Amino acid sequence: MANIVKLLLISVLAFLYVPMQAQEECEVLSENLKGEYRGKCKRGLAHGYGEAQGKDYYIGDFKKGYPHGNGTYTWSSGEKYEGEWERGLRDGEGTYYFFANGKDSVIYGRWVDDEYVGVYHERPYNVDFRDNVGRVTFTKVSDSRQYVRLKFMRDGGENTHISEVFLMGSSGVENNSRMFTGFENTEFPFKGKVVFNAPNSFYAATMRCEVRYQIFEPGAWVVAISY
Question: What's the pTM?
């Protein structure tokens, strides 16, 4: 009888153990990104902000195992695309960096189903560079004032777990207080840069983040940086 009870306990523990192990696995479905993945998961697939390293490298938003949203993809050849994705394909506005005719080249524009379709319409702002940063959104809150305020976001809310913030701006007075991070009395077009340290998604290590951006239209702007 004791042996039967023992076997039953072992069977129950084994049954509970297998699903728990399966939940820890997180798969990336894009073939050239299969290898190592760090980031958020949902039902065993990369979903949310993450980083994948296979033959190629990608950091940014995922959905159901594929790059989806905003992200930066670097091919093993050294080519790089920063911009919008849909189910693993370039789709939306983005910037493509490549090497042609003996020199570095850049294409700005719009992609549909991974095909370049032309330059996008001029916008009042642009993100020139991102590193360890996901979505960057620009909101104009006033026409009567002129400033650029930075907000640091994680999981949809403003986050203050950042350190060593370094700001650069083409004009205005720098303000890095508890209530306001950015530049007041700015002139436009405005060109800015911010570098900061922030915890990774597991709060287990610190990563260096950087954003370079431009705002062409005068006004009071809030730039929300999700990391």
Answer: 0.50
Domain ranges of the chain: 31-118, 125-226
The pairing of strands 220-226 and 147-154 is: parallel
Read off the pLDDT of residues 56-107 as tens digits, 9 standing for 90 and up.
999 999 999 999 999 999 999 999 999 999 999 999 988 888 887 777 777 8
Kindly indicate whether the domain formed by 31-118 is annotated with CATH number 3.30.420.
no
What is the share, in percent, of the chain residues with pLDDT greater than 70? 87
